[in-house]
Amino acid sequence: TGVGAVSLLALGASALYSRRLLRRIDEVTSASRRIMAGDLSQRLPLAGTQDEMDRLVASLNLMLERIEQLLDGLREVSDNIAHDLKTPLTRLRNRAEAALRDPAGGPAYRTGLERTLEEADELIKTFNALLSIARLEAGAGSDQAQPIDLVAVVQDAVELYEPVAEEAGLRIGLDVRPAGIRPDGMTVTADRQLIGQALANLIENAMKYGSNASGGGQRLPGRTDITVEIATRPGWVDVSVSDRGPGIPPADRERVLKRFVRLESSRTRPGTGLGLSLVAAVARLHKGDVRLADNAPGLRVIFSLPTALAQPTMPRA
Length: 317
What we know:
The chain is of the alpha+beta class. Helix content is 52%, strand content 13%.
């Protein structure tokens, strides 16, 4: 009698558990079909039991969220390419056509060709930047990582742009904290060339968009227009580039890190909207991040990298 009762209880419990499991599988299947039909905002249902099934569904939901973000980014990039490249291509064609119709003949043709070459160079720069971002997001360059002194890399970048800033009537200042020493915490495992390129982009942006703070290029004694600062915190090195320009509203600071995003205030200046995207891609490749903050006035961009002690080697893609 006891064995029979236990057997009946076991069969009942098994049937109940199987029914419950099949019901959850049906719910997951139904949600999966809606997702496959094109509704990427759908997520698989969680029962809230924190069991193995719930953990599996939670992982799948994270994967679906990442896929949705990638597809949204792809659509946004496609729209931006169509929008931002249509204008220079149209301008290039119009200039070539105007040169052909100019009655001046040879001199007009030469001028038209020179302007066409300038437009073509800008387009090539845009595509090169896109290729660089794609390579970085695919992990290319991770095999070139080695321990480097970040202070030396930043000093080289500042010294490179000091003459250019002088010509523009700007002053670049470098601040290393703690001053005068090179602690081990400022050694990072990274690709020196990529880090230098990211720093160059940040300094160029500061010179381009922060140049109005000095009153039309007029220097104010004792004040730097662009400040490059290096500081450490546990496990991280922060390199910040600050300017005294109009800055970026808080609502737009995450958006400008995406490709081809240019604020209305910067549309009148040359550029592609890929500079900060490239910096963010370099940071992600090195397991770091990029943050934008208010410099009061101006913009402060913080480029953070894990130290060599926190990240002994950078994994290959």
